[in-house]
Amino acid sequence: PVNLKGRSFLTLMDFTPEEIRYMLDLSHDLKSKKRAGIHNELLKGKNIVLLFEKTSTRTRCAFEVAALDEGAHVTFLDSNSSQMGKKESLEDTAKVLGRFYDGIEYRGYKQSVVEDLAKYSGVPVWNGLTDVDHPTQILADLMTIEEHVAKPLNKVKVVFVGDTRNNMSYAWMYGCAKLGMHYVAYGPKELWPEKEVMDKVQEVAKETGAVIEVSDNIECVKGADVIYTDVWVSMGEEDKLAERVRLLTPYRVTMDMLNATGNKDVIFMHCLPSFHDFETKVAKEAKEKMGLDVREVTDEVFRSRHSVVFDEAENRMHTIKAVMVATL
Ligand code: CP
Ligand code: NVA
């Protein structure tokens, strides 16, 4: 039987397929319980701290609502309002927080920070996004696929379009490798996954039967069940905007791309936030000041019947709840 009590959730690479299955089953279960108005206070009396060095809407709110739903108390800290990383070392911060809290969420830059928090705090640490991973998002995405695609996950083909070297792409590679899925990184060669990451996932794929591929040819979308994309410039690399627009414009997700899958029921997914129009300050300024069209997906696709992005966003909460319940 699976028992995750006391474990940290830093990357899906640390978990067996059975453990990931367990977290997904628990997520579906907690979602139906919430829908039915059943609250069992599974985290009653627990204290949780949320550390954010990058901004967030979904992840922060998902942790807060999930914790409060189950009777836990949360503290939110960002780098402006705590000593973290400025007046106090990471090691000391982790040791202090471990004395106060039952679990720690961290969003920021380096993966080594979540690893060190786990090493020094002595309590479960959950990765709320780093430069190279975003594992809680993948749990929500897998859950959403199970709700919308009538196939077991190991028969599902996911095509990740765009910056296939970013945290979302890597997190997807880990999830697909572990669960024996078919993953295609579709984007320009300049932004393909690094060799070390490729080698690491191919090792896992050998055991699970997963297929992990890269391509810059539109033919690769044929037969896709999921077309997934993310912003072209991730948090922390804003200076790369012009270069990314140049490299990635051919990979904007359009209705033509969805049609090229040949699957009339293909679903469109996106972790969000998204630039699908020019309504945001960033997209508008890029257009007006630099003449750059930063849309990674058209508004038509984003609002189409294929798009499941808001179910996906909701599922962040149910899956994050499952991770906290399982590890606490
Ligand atoms: N998808 C996601 O992590 O969203 P936030 O940046 O709003 O948390
Ligand atoms: N790749 C994006 C994901 C945001 C949820 C970023 O890191 O900014």
Fold and architecture overview:
It contains 12 helices and 9 strands. By secondary structure, it is of the alpha/beta class. The strands form 2 sheets. Strands 7-6-5-8-9 form a 5-stranded parallel β-sheet, with helices on one face. A 4-stranded parallel β-sheet has the order 2-1-3-4, with helices on both faces. The longest helix has 19 residues, at 17-35. Helix 2 (58-69) links the parallel strand 1 and strand 2. It is globular and about 55 Å long. The two termini are 16 Å apart. The mean pLDDT is 97. The structure holds phosphoric acid mono(formamide)ester (CP) and norvaline.
Order of helices and strands: HEHEHEHEHEHEHEEHHEHHH
Tell me the β content.
Answer: 5-15%
Fraction of residues in H or I helices: 40-55%
In total, the number of strands is: 9
Which stretches are low in confidence, meaning pLDDT under 50 for 5 or more residues running? none
Subcellular location: Cytoplasm
Keywords: Cytoplasm, Transferase
GO molecular function, one term: amino acid binding
Organism: Caloramator quimbayensis
